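## retry 2 of 3
previous attempt timed out at serialization; input unchanged, resubmitting
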Amino acid sequence: MNTSHESDPAAFEREWQLQERALQHERARLDASADDARVSRYRLLARSLRQPLQETLPTDFAYRIAAMASAREVLADDAEQRFDRRLLQAAIGVFGLVIVGVIVWYGGDWLVPTSATARVGALLGNRWLLMLTACLAVSVMTQRVARGLDRDATSRG
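## retry succeeded, writing output
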C-alpha cells in the first residue's frame, strides 16, 4: 500500500479503492490491459500473495528446534554454575585476605582471648560460639532440604 498520502483522507480512500478494484479484477480474472499502472501493480501483488510458499519446513523441524533450545539451556546452566563457582572462590579469597589482615593488624593480641575460651566450660558459655553453631546447623539443613527437593523434581520430571 502506498503510505505517502496517509495524512490526506481522500488520497487514502482513493488508494484503498484502487487496491480493492485490483483484487476484484484479479479474482474475476479480467483482462489486465484495461487497468492503469497502479491497479496492475496491485493485481500483481494480489496474485503473488495468493500463491503458496515455495519452501516447506523439514519433517523434523520441531525436533531440531527443541534440540537447539535444550542445548542452549544446558550451556546457560553450565555458564551459571561456573559463575557461581568463581564467585564463591572470590568470596573465600576475600575472607582469607581479611583473616590474614586481622592477624597482621592485631598480631599476637588476638591469641590470648582465643586461648582463654578454649576451655570447654568457657566454650559453652560463649554466646557467639553458640550463634555460629546455630547458623552452621541451619545452613547445612537448608542445603540438605534443597538437595532433596531437587532430587524429587528430577525424579518426577
